[in-house]
Amino acid sequence: MPRPQEVNRSQVLIIGLVLLALMLPWLPFGASTNYILRVLTTAVLYMILALGLNIVPGFTGLLDLGYVGFYGIGAYTSGLLAIHYDLSLWVILPLAALNGALWGILLGAPTLRLTGDYFAIVTFGFSELVVLVLRNELWLTRGPMGLPGISPPSIFGHPLTRDWEFFYLIVFLLAVVFVVVRRMEDSRLGRAWFAIREDEIAAQCCGVNLIRYKVTAFAISASIGAMGGAFYAKWFKFIHPDMFKFWESILILCLIVFGGMGSIWGTMLGALILIPLTEILRAVLPQSLFSARYLIYGLILVLMMRWRPEGLIPFESAQAEKAKQTQKRLTGLVGKE
């Protein structure tokens, strides 16, 4: 007799998380509902950013310290297109992603021959260069005055102004990014990235074009970061060069290390824990000591490196679970025959 197919635990988890996300705006949080939704929207935004960055250091094994540059490029692309051309968010998002991918290629193509610390230094310089351009090119970005008056996004002519509307929108964008990244992880492209991460020489001997796959990883990662920046500009309605400082790149990298380098679920879990922690520290610490949160983040990472260096959800565990599910499906097919 054919064996009943076992329910994939990942599918159950995804369905449960989607249902929880749909119910969150309507839970009885009282007067704090809007504040909690804003914090959760920020956490989901950083999940998207972390998923994008995870492609480079997590999948390909390259240390990227300039990710915030693509975040800022996407935000200013969104703001300028909204102010000068009044374009819809659904037009701005692909344009911002395309612009981010273009800059990712322009940065990656000449620098990806570098390795280790040299590559990290170049990406760091790129992020600083982006901030300098945003701050000094007054004719384009208004510099230190910032870019105000960005119109809110709209759906079928209805402008999104409520916190729960932005929450649903960012959850939808997260679902799209999650599906894309998950499909790439299981594809030939993803396997080539993992081969490069494990051993570049062995991957090249097997026919993997290192520069081609590295540039592709950089472009896709940059496009996701730019898309996150585009949403941020439409949500916040004001952007400033100081919003895209180097600390943002370090914060997003911390999310990946804390959750599990290369692990999709770990990356999202890291953002879900550490981003709300900022608001908790804001309420607990005095205003004069709020900058001490950087020390707390550092202490958390040091403890993680000491006791669980692979992160909350290790990449190897996720791969082992995936192999186990594949084996179960194959066993079921054999049983049917």
In short:
By secondary structure, the protein is an all-alpha fold.
Question: How would you characterize this protein structure?
Answer:
The chain is an all-alpha fold and 337 residues long. The chain has one domain: Orthogonal Bundle (ABC transporter involved in vitamin B12 uptake, BtuC). Helices cover 74% and strands 1% of the residues. The protein has 14 helices and 2 strands. The chain has helices at residues 9-23, 33-60, 67-85, 89-111, 116-136, 138-141, 163-185, 188-198, 200-205, 210-236, 246-259, 264-284, 293-307, 315-336; strands at 154-155, 158-159. The chain has a two-stranded antiparallel ribbon with strand order 1-2. A hairpin with a 2-residue loop joins strand 1 and strand 2 (158-159).
Task: Lay out the secondary structure.
Blueprint (H helix, E strand, L loop, with lengths): L8 H15 L9 H28 L6 H19 L3 H23 L4 H21 L1 H4 L12 E2 L2 E2 L3 H23 L2 H11 L1 H6 L4 H27 L9 H14 L4 H21 L8 H15 L7 H22 L1
Helix pairs in contact: 2-7, 2-8, 2-10, 2-11, 2-12, 3-4, 3-5, 3-10, 4-10, 8-10, 11-12
